[in-house]
């Protein structure tokens, strides 16, 4: 006992000196006080003497020892003095101060164990922080440290506290993989981490977005027998909510209550906020209303959440009432956050005046709006189309306080890009650079999206190069924007190359990226490949959503693969996705496209069962579909039903009806219908046109069109391009090309300039009549005007060359399509196959069918029917039947024309047995309605061939392709 006071004071003195011990030489080694020759000590003797000096606290004697620090000496001293943590720490810190020596990871593991055993936890944590922060080096990897800690534990037979502290150190320093490694290995050795360390790890996982990992770690805790406390429960509830699984959070909370665990107010607040974030305000209010019955008193956070719920529900007036109530409660201090929620709600609703009123009320309460609230206003103005107001607000911030931040500028930048004002966007970028506001990957992504939105893919690629040169690393969103841009502008090869690059670099992770790719492949007609991506998503733990499946279903519908579409529909139902009107609209379109219109009524009945009301798109699909089937009266039935239900027909519906009325030569009916569409007056232009023209137009279609335009409105508005093009398409499809040209001339003085659609229509009209030179002249005129012909235009040119018998030139033009950045579609291939069949060159026709497949384009009913017709003409019925069977095996249903072609082939050979057999097949497939049709077939009268049908350029085809 006589040494206790001196011992404490000596040790304290020794430890205080660790920041600058007098006996640490400036050069980094212990000084040698005497110039006399020192006796050479063995390692064992040196360690003995050091330990003796440290134990006896004769620190001055340490100056006289001639030695250099090494791992060997340090470790030997630590092992020898492991029960004397103060002496060990003093010697370890002396070692740390040496210039030419640093303690190894092994030494750190020893001192951590020694200090933890001596309950010197703060010092142990400091040493652990030094150790774990250097974990990037090979000798400080988590596996090395854990194994070394384990080795020391076995040698010293100390407590497990060090492992628990190691877990917490990794977690707090953000090394979550390392923390999980320690957590897993402690469990493997049968050791339980402390609840506090587990909570620390779970909390850090949630904060860094590793929500699912946190939930799995919690499950592992429970299996290890570690019981949760109120903090654990709050963290897990937060993890479920942040992961979007709010219902799971509610279930978890309820189960904890049933098991008798305490669930605090924080957990309830987290659940309320979770419901609010996914728009389930009813459930959020339910939790709020249950708080009182569970013994909780409302605080400022509770009321703030109530305001947030009301705002999310659009009941901002109710939220204001809560705010007034809060101000009346003593002790409730309303802060800027509460006002910010209300201001944001009004901005979201576009009620900027109310938002300003709330800001004024906030100022009168003595609160100053912060940058976040100013940014809410900037965002509100931009969303409301008031970009000038947003500019003024940023100007005010620049000369006052608070100053605009990166979010302020990026919000305005996004508004410029959305509005197509790319010049202004770049001006703002320059201003940001001048003000040292970082141009981040978010800024570049906004600009990329702006360029892609206006189809300026070249500018987007140039910007991409600038981004890389400036050292900004693109993220997954950057790649996704560019991928979407490539698909939208028809750069399919570049899109596919970029996709493969993304997969290689690991940039394909998010649902948005996968959905863009699936949508792009579906538009390209490669629906099978799009379906394969679903598995890639699942492999990367990225679950498809309703949009993924709906896009895929729409792709199968557009390609006519209705069996696959119905498979996707069944999968959606099994996964619990509610049927949507968009899904049924796609199915209806697909049924018409695949000539299975007999199923349309069943789908309409299913829609009714699911309490889904047909919308304008539904009626558009029905009207267009029945027009395609030649049942225009049925189309008009739906047209009038739509009007009776209060739905106003859009341009596409009316143009479809007008187009088919023109095709049938019902010009008067078409003109009557157009009275519903006209909203401009071109009387002046028509009079000018009439004076300059020598033609008698009194009863021409152009005259009737101009008359409708003149009488339809007293306002002198610019001609509607869509309607004008509908007129032009109608005239060209009915063979009145010259009249269509005169009509264009009549409109030109009113600012109507022919666009891609107009030229495609005229080119198609000339090509259909075999006027190939005129068609190519118009193509060249397009190019001179800066209009880029699309695949529809080149399909028309190829069709004209085929019809004029110039197959060599048609094939040469086809081979140049990739150079023009265009991908041939099913129409391109079918046109060339038809041309070769008509020329009697069936070998070449087959080669193009093979090329279709190589290009990822599935042959359709028209492809097979054309080839069958070619072989039937040459009397090769065996090959025709093989093609028919191949067609059925590939999932395509032969139509009336397909069977009729083969029937007439057998009639020419006199094989009535085969004719009878084919008739039975047609009857089974529902292609014959009565015996009169059988008589017509057997009479030998030719069926309506593709040559006899009017050559029609569909409005919808041009709208999509151009």
TrEMBL record:
PPR repeats lie at residues 159-193, 194-228, 229-263, 264-298, 299-329, 335-369, 370-404, 405-439, 440-474, 475-509, 510-544, 545-579, 580-614, 615-649, 720-754, 755-789, 790-824, 825-859, 860-894, 895-929. Residues 247-357 form the Pentatricopeptide repeat-containing protein-mitochondrial domain. InterPro entries: PPR_P_subfamily (IPR050872), PPR_rpt (IPR002885), TPR-like_helical_dom_sf (IPR011990), TPR_mt (IPR057027). Keywords: Repeat. Belongs to the PPR family. P subfamily. NCBIfam families: PPR. This is Pentatricopeptide repeat-containing protein-mitochondrial domain-containing protein. The lineage of its organism: Eukaryota, Viridiplantae, Streptophyta, Embryophyta, Tracheophyta.
